[in-house]
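Review form for a predicted model. The reviewer records the input and the model, then writes brief findings.
Reviewer: anonymous (R2)
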Amino acid sequence: MKKIVLYFTLAIISIHTSQAQLIKDILNKAGQATSGNGKNLSNEDIISGLKDALRVGTDSSTKKLGSMDGFFKDAAIKILMPEEAKKVEKTLRNFGMGSLVDKAVLSMNRAAEDAASGVGNIFWDAIKGMSISDGLKILRGGDFAATDYLKSVTTKQLTEKFRPVIETSLVKMDATKYWKDVFTAYNRFSKDQVNTDLTAYVTERALSGLFYNIGLQEQKIRKDPAAQVTDILKKVFGK
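Model under review:
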């Protein structure tokens, strides 16, 4: 009987020891992340690397899109007439007034370019709030995980801050004037009114273009050693 009790006691101890070791292993794994090259990374490394990736991505994107033709000559993000104004464009072009539409389109893109050149700090302020749990998910995510995170948690805030910048640029680039000219001309031929908030539309399209380019930069940083331009980027994303 004593032997049975002894065996039973030893079995219980063994089970608890195994469970304790298992829990310890899980906690150890939770406290560390591994980069694509198999190196262990601290939480600080992960957050620093991801923030740096977004900083490099936003700096590169705002510089590129803030230059002449940054939006206008990039087919992927060029700002065209909004869907609800397509019939306006079609009507004016049919009446030989396509140049008015062309001027409006050009001025919207010029406004987006003008605004993009000065919004780096808006993005950087948003990037600073990344948490450790966010960082772990992003590191293990796809090519655009950091950009998707930035977009999901900051779009509302960025829109509020970016809108007045766009509004100023629209006036500066005569976009509001050309927009008014387009609809004044359209109203001569149609009784149907089209109401588009120009500032809201260009703000949304400009932010979409910026996020698109930030995503491309993130993808490069994850895959191309030449794009890993800082030591922490090399450590986190290097092969």
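Findings: The longest strand covers residues 33-34.
Further findings: The chain has two domains: 1-30, 42-237.
Recommendation: see findings above.
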